[in-house]
Structures are given as structure tokens and as C-alpha cells.
Design brief:
single chain, mainly beta, Immunoglobulin-like, five-stranded mixed β-sheet
Amino acid sequence: MEKAISPLIVGAAVLAVLSVPLISFAVGPTLILSTSSGAPGSTVQVSGSQFGASTNVLVSLAGTSTGATVTNSSFNTFLTVPNVQSGTYTVLATSPQREQASANFFIQNNSHILYYPNAQPSSWYLLPGQQLRFTGSGFAPGATVSVQGGGGTLTTVADGTGSFATQFVTVPYKWQSSRQQFVVSSSNTAYNIVMTLTIGTFYPNMQPSSYYVALGQGMSASVSGFAQGEPVMLLVNGALVVQKTADNSGSAAFDFTAPTSGSTFMLTAEGAFSHVIVSRTITLH
């Protein structure tokens, strides 16, 4: 014969179960990366949360590190991916209170990637004295880019997006009326980029105030077509009379006195840098 279970006993058992406290697990610090992989020279954003308030953290990746300030238990910072061998590395954030959070990051090996870049000059046609630079994109992030030509080499480093820009250089006057070839090269590219620039020359003009003047008469002359900022010499029968600096348009104006003897004289303007010359014959009476 089965024994009946008292309702009082069942009720007591239920109360005993309900009285056991619930166990809660604290959530520790966490890291979130803007991307899970990248090439050397690229940038990754690191965001952390659940850190102690008003503290600092050190964020590191494969030997490189940066500091960040925690505000309201969170922080944001950026790391530049170091140039190390390909593989999976740990991004680690550590606070002075020994709080830690980590995330995996895969660093790509550029030596196994072939790039197909492009590059161009600031202009394909320039005059001596003008500024020249080269820009490009599609290179390996952090790669060294060289531009060779004109008897020299320009070197720069591609940024995290694979783009580059050289410093500006002044086109030499000795390049007048020539074609200059430049070669852009870098490691891990499928080809070198060859470009040919045309360097022009100057075609100056002169306009005297008169082609027929009296002996010893005051007169003037204006010139144009010289290099910007170039000293321009005015000569009478080969002798220097006055010198002026050409303005931004390559122009200058002169005041002078005609010779006191002779029947004609040669008026000449010459660029001190470009050495281009323009002359006019003036009649005296």
C-alpha cells in the first residue's frame, strides 16, 4: 500500500528550491577591431569596453603599441600594422589594474601579393622654374617608392592605402627644350611605370615705347614671355643698362635713356636664368 505524500512536505521542498540564490557571472573587458586583417602600414581601429573608469590602457600588436584613455569604461584608438611576417597575432589591451582584453588579428605578407599600381606627374608639360611632383596609388601599404629620372632619384613611402606623393622639385633651366624620362618603381609591383615629360622653352617678346627716338631721349620698354621671378637684363648695344625681376606672368617694364650718339642702337632683353634673348633695333635722329 503506497504512502500518501503530504502537501505540506511538497510545499516546503518548493520553497527550499526557490530560496537558492542565483549565480551571476561578471562580464570582463572586451575588444572590437575595425578589421580582422591588414597589411603592414595599414591602420586598424581598436575599441575597448568594460574597463575601469578613468584609467589608461596600453594597446599592443606584434611589438608596436599605443596608449589610450578610458572614458566611461570605454576607449578608442588606432594601431599601425607593423612590418612583420604573415600570421595571426594578438591585439592586447592592458590597464594598470591588470584588466586585460584581447582579439586576434591576421597580418598579411606583402611579399606574396603582386600589386598593379599607377602613377602620374603633376603636369606632362612644364617650363623651367615650375614645380613638379609625382603621385600614385595601388602600391603596397608602407612600401618604398622611387622615382628615377633627370639625373636624380626621389624616394617616398606609400601610406596605409597604398598611395604616395613626392615632394615638389623645381624644373631645372638646363632641361629647356627637352624630353625627360622618369621611372617609378617599388617592390612587389608587377611592373615599373615609365613616363616621359616635355620641358618647353621661353619665347620672349619686347615692345619699346618707340622705334624712332631722338639722341639722349628718355624712353621705355616692356618685355614678356620670360620665366616667373627671373631677373631680366636690359642691354643697349650689349652693355647692361638696368635689370628687373619678371613678375608672376614673366613680364617686366624698363625706363632708360637712348644713346647720345649714333644712328641706331640695339636694344636687348636677356633672361638671367633661361638665357633666352629678344632684341629690337631703334633708330636715332
